[in-house]
Design goal:
alpha/beta; homotetramer; eight-stranded parallel barrel
Chain lengths: 350, 350, 350, 350
C-alpha cells in the first residue's frame, strides 16, 4: 500500500502506477478527499520497497499484514467517528437505533417512531424492502414504505436506517434514507457493496450468517475501497448448532473487531437472540463488551407484526432497555449519545 | 396452492383470485406453459377449502406442508429432467461439468476445454465474473472471458456453465452461457434469483455456505415461482468447525434433497473439500449417494492458477475420476450420460 | 414427578412406587433431606394422574415439560444459593474464581494464590489433573498438585476449585478440594457425573465443547438425581466455524440458563475467548448478561505457563478486571460477593 | 521420536533415555513386540539430532510433524490390518458390523443376530451399557446384556462389539466382548482411553460429536501409546447447524483419515444421518469414499426399539444395503470381507 503525499500531482500518481505495473503487479487506486492511496495487488514477494523510494510524491509505503487494508487499525489507528444526522457514532456516545422489523403501514410506523424517540432512540430502523426466505412471505411495502419512513423522520427528527437489497435500489433508497443497511444475506453481494461504496451514504453492514470476522472486514473493504469511508459494522449473531436461541451472539466479535478496525461496531440483540426475553440482557452485554451502539426491533403490538414479532420489544420494554444500557455505558466510562433537540413545529429538520 | 385446469380461462383465474383475496389472503400467480397455479399466501388457518370448490376451472387444491411448493416432490412427484444442450440432466445419466475455476486467458481455457471433453466431461465450467472475498483479488476477465467461453464451446461442443453475480449481468451472460450459475454467496440474493427466474436459461444454484437444505429449496422456489422451471441444485460443502478440509461435504444433503425435491442435484467435490487429493474420493461418494452429476475444477497447471489452484485436478487426474465415477454409476444402476458427437469441422453446433 | 409430603412414611413411598410400577412405568427415587421425590420414567401417555390421587403421602404431582426435572425452574422457582466456603454463590453477590490453568509448582501456585486473593478473588482455581488433547503433553502434578492447592488454601483462606477426571479420583480430590470441577470433555462422562452426584462436594460443571443448553442441563440432572444439589453451571465457549478466537462465547446461554434453571451460572472468559486481550471485555459482558460469577485464568508469567499461557491474565490485569466487573455488577443492581476475612496467622481455617 | 534397533539392549535404551533427559526433555517409552520407541516430549527446538547419533542401539530418529505419532502414516506407512475374530479389518475386504442400538432382551437380540448374520454381517453390535442424555432414559441391561451378547456370539459365530463407558468396566466387558467400543461422548475420556490402551482388546473409537480429525487421532494416540495397537476409527457424523438430519456425515473425514493414518476407518451411517431412509445411500457413499467397513443399526421392529428406532433398519432393508455395498466395494476394487463359516452345532467357536 503506497500512500501518496497530500500534495502529490496526478502525474506523480501516474508514475508510481507505471512503476508498480512494470513489476507485473496491479494497482488499486483509492482517491480520498485528502490523498491518493495506491493499493498494490499481486505477488509482492519478489519486489523490494526500495525500488519505489526514489519516485516523487510518495509519503510512505505500508505493508499490511491483514488481507484488508483501509479497514484496518494498522492503517488508521484512531477510531472513525462520523455523524448520523447530528449524532456522532464511533465516539464516546453510545448510539441506539430502534424501530420495527418492517414498515407495515403509516400509522404503526409513526406510532413506533414517536415511542422509540421518547424512550431515547437516536435513529429509526424499518425495512421497506425485506429479504425473506420464502417468495410467498411479505416482501415489504417498497417505495411506499420509504415514503412513510421519510414522514416519520420529519415528525420525529430521527434519521432513518433502511435496507437496500440490490445495486439498482441504491439511488432510490438513498433519496429517502440516512443510512443504507446491507443485510446479512447480502454481505458478500459484491455488486451491492460496489454500489454502496460509490454512494455518499453511511452504510450499516451486517455480518453474514456464517461469515468470519475477517470476511466481514473484507466486505467492508469493498465499500471503503470504492471511496465511501462511512461504514458501521454490525454483529447480528452467527449460525451454530445451538437451537435454544435463533442465532448465537458472537460477543467475542465485539472486542475482536474493535481491536482490528477503526470502524464503529454495533450489536443487533434482536436478531442475535431471536427471542425478546433475552434482548435486554444481550444488549447490556454488547455495550459492556465495547460496542458503539445497538440496533433493536421495537413494535407496539409484536403479536401482530408481519415479521419477527417474537423478537420485537414493546416500547415500554425498550424504554427499560435504554435505562439499563445507560447504566452499563457509564460503567464502561461512556454515556448515551447526545440527542438532537426535537424538530420545531415551525422549522422541519430538512 | 390451487391448481387450475389446463383449459381454465383467464376469467376463471380472475374469479379464483378474487375469492382468495376476499378471504384476506394474497395470491402468488405462476403461469406455466400448461396451466396456471395460484399460490395462496397468508394465514390460511381460518379458511376452509370447501369455500373454493364451487368455482369453475379449478383442477385441485393442494395443501403443501413444506414452505416451498413448486420445488417439492409433493407437488411434482417425478424427477425433473431437462436438456443441457443435448445431454439430459436429472435422468438416468450422470452428468459431468468440468473446467477451470476462472477463465484466465484464451489459450489455457481452450486447452482445458479440449482436455475435459476428451476425458469425458459433458459441459464446461469457467468463471468470467468471480466473487472474491478480497476487493484486491483477481475479479475475472468479464465479457472478454465470456467470449473465450463461447469460443471454447464452438471448438468442443460443450455447453457452458458460468457464474452471474448481479441482476443486470443476466442478459449479457445469457447471450454467451448455456447455464447461469448462482454462487454460494448469492444464494439469497433475491434480486438475482428474481432475474434468473425471469430468464429462460437453466440455472445452477449453489447452496450457501451455511444454508440449510430448506433454505436452498426456498431459494430455488424464488426462481421457480418466477416462471423458470430449469433449476439444478448443487451441494458444495458447508461451513463447520472442522479445518482439515476447506468445507465439509454435506453428503447427507444428497439423499435428503432427492427425497424432498424433483429437481436434479449435483455435487461440487472441488469446493466441498478444497484439496485436490480428496476430490476423486468425494466425487465417488457423491454419485454413490445418488447425485445426478458433478461439477469439478480442472486446470492444466494448478500451481499457476489465479484462483483455487489447490483444489483443481490436472486433466489426467480428472480422466481417472471419470473412469472411477463410471464404475460407481454402474454400481448404483446408472451410467454416465451420453455425450453429443463432437462438432463437425464443417458445421458448427449452433 | 410425584412429590411426597415431608411427613410421608417409608411405607407410603413404597405404595406409590408399587402403583407406578403396576402401570408398566419405572421410578427414579430421589430422597432429599426434606422429602422424597419420585420421578416417573416411561411412556406416561396412557396414564392419568387421577389414578394416583387417592394414595396417601403425596403432596403434588408435577408434569415437567422439559426433559430435565430437578434442574428446572418449573420445579424449583427460586435461585439455588449455596456457600462456597463462606462466600454465597447464586445470590446477589458476584463470585470470582481465579488461578492458574494447571498447578505447576509450589512457589508459582502460592504466588498466584496470594495475588488473586489480593486482587479480589473469592476462590482459587488450578488443575492437578489435566485433560490434555495429546498424551505427550504435561498431564498435571497429580496428588502433589492437590497438596500444593491445600497449602495455598491454608495460606490465603481461598476455597479451592480443581478438576476431577474419573470416578475413582473423586474420593481423593474431595479430600483436598472445596469444589469438584468437571471439564468440558467430561460433561457427558456419565460414570463421573454419577460419582460426583454421590459425593457431598459442590460441583462446577462445564458445558461441553458443542453441547446444547439442554444437554448441559441434562448433565446437571445426572448429578442432581444422585442426591447432590450443589451444582454450578459454567459457560466456557462453544465450537463454531469462527477462528479469530479459540471458542465462541455463547453469551445468549447466560440469560437462557438463568431462565430455565435455578442453579448458579458462571462464565469462563479465558477459555471462551482463548486470548487474554479479550478476557476482560467478555468478563464484563458475562456479568452484564446476568452471570453469577466468573472463573478466570491468572498466571504471574503467562509466557512461561505449561498450558494456556495465551489466555492467562497477569495479576495486575486481573486486578483491573475485578475493578471493571465491580462497576458492571453495580450497574445491574448487584455487587461483588463479600469476602471472608483473611485467615488469622494464629488460627488457620482448617 | 527415536526408534531403537530391534536388537537394542535394555541398557542401550536406558542410555538414550538418560541422554534425552539430560537435555531437559521427557521421554515417552513405548515397548512394542519388536522394538522400543522413545517418544521425546518437550521443547525440542534447542536440541540437535546429532547429539544422539553416537549412542548405540538407535535405528533412526524421526521428526513427526503431526501432534500424533504412533497413529500417523509418517510413522507406519502401510495399512494396519488385524483380525476381528477371523475376519480381517483394514485390508482389502470391507467389514460390516450390525445389530441393535441396545440389547433389549434375549429373544430380540438372538433374532437380530441371526438376521444380520444371514444378511451378510461380519460382527454383531449391541449396547449393554448405554450412555443416555437423560438420567431417566433406559440405561441398558448391564452385565445381563453382556451375557445375551455372548450367547448370540455362540449361536451365530459373530464377534461382538459393545460399548464400555468407564475404566472400571473394561475388565468385565473384555470378558464378554471381542471389540470394546468407546462412544462419541467419551472420545476424550482419558482415563477410559488409558484403560482401553492397557487392555489387549481391539478398540472401536468413535469420533466425538464435534471433535476434529486431529483430535480423533490424538485420542487414538492415547490408546496406542499405552501399548494397544488395535484401534478402529469410526466417523459417526458431526454436529453442525443443519437440522434435516440428526448429524452431518463428514464424508471428507474418510479420505482425510485414510491419508493421515494407517488405522482402519469405518463409517456409522445410522448415527451420521439419524434417519433410516438415508442410511443405505450414506453407507454406499462411505465405501465409495474409501471406508474399510460400516457399523449399522438393525432392529426387527424399529417402532418398538427402546432407543434409536428412527435410525434402525429392518433386517430386510439391511440385506438390501449389503447387496448395494457389495457392488460399490467392487466398483472401488475391493470386496466384502470373507466370512468365517457358521459355527458347527457340534463345536462352538470358543
Amino acid at each position: 500500500m503506497i500512500i501518496m503525499k497530500t500534495e502529490a500531482s496526478q502525474e506523480q500518481v501516474g508514475q508510481v502506477i507505471n512503476a508498480v505495473e512494470a513489476c507485473g503487479l496491479h494497482v488499486h487506486l483509492s482517491k480520498g478527499e485528502e490523498r491518493t492511496i495506491i493499493g498494490v495487488v499481486g505477488d509482492i514477494r519478489s519486489v523490494r520497497q526500495e525500488q519505489f523510494l526514489h519516485l516523487a510524491g510518495i509519503d510512505r509505503i505500508l505493508s499490511i499484514s491483514r488481507p484488508y487494508k483501509i479497514a484496518s487499525r494498522e492503517f488508521i489507528p484512531q477510531n472513525s467517528v462520523f455523524p448520523l444526522d447530528g449524532v456522532q457514532i464511533g465516539g464516546e456516545g453510545v448510539v441506539l437505533i430502534a424501530g420495527p422489523c418492517s414498515v407495515e403501514n403509516r400509522e404503526t410506523l409513526l406510532e413506533t417512531a414517536h415511542a422509540v424517540r421518547e424512550a431515547g432512540a437516536h435513529a429509526l430502523r424499518g425495512g421497506a424492502y425485506k429479504p425473506r426466505t420464502s417468495p410467498y412471505a411479505f416482501q415489504g411495502l417498497g417505495e411506499q414504505g420509504l415514503e412513510y419512513l421519510a414522514e416519520a423522520r420529519e415528525a420525529t427528527g430521527l434519521p432513518v436506517v433502511t435496507e437496500v437489497m440490490s445495486p439498482e435500489q441504491v439511488p432510490l433508497v438513498s433519496r429517502y434514507a440516512d443510512v443504507l443497511q446491507i443485510g446479512a444475506r447480502n454481505m458478500q453481494n459484491y455488486a451491492l457493496l460496489h454500489a454502496a461504496g460509490e454512494s455518499q451514504k453511511t452504510v450499516l453492514l451486517k455480518r453474514g450468517m456464517s461469515a468470519t470476522v475477517d470476511e466481514l472486514l473484507m466486505a467492508a473493504e469493498y465499500i471503503l475501497s470504492h471511496g465511501n469511508r462511512r461504514v458501521i459494522l454490525c454483529e447480528r449473531g452467527i449460525r451454530t448448532y445451538e437451537t435454544s436461541t435463533r442465532n448465537t451472539t458472537d460477543i467475542n466479535a465485539i472486542p475482536v473487531l474493535k481491536s482490528l478496525t477503526h470502524l464503529p461496531v454495533i450489536l443487533d440483540p434482536s436478531h442475535s437472540t431471536g427471542l425478546w426475553q433475552y434482548v435486554t440482557a444481550i444488549a447490556r452485554a454488547g455495550i459492556a463488551a465495547g460496542a458503539d451502539g445497538l440496533i433493536v426491533e421495537v413494535h407496539p403490538r409484536p403479536e401482530e407484526a408481519l415479521s419477527d414479532g417474537g423478537q420485537s420489544l414493546k416500547p415500554e420494554r425498550f424504554a427499560e432497555l435504554v435505562g439499563q444500557v445507560r447504566l452499563i455505558s457509564e460503567a464502561v466510562g461512556r454515556k448515551l449519545a447526545e440527542k438532537k433537540p426535537l424538530p420545531s413545529p415551525f422549522a422541519g429538520p430538512h
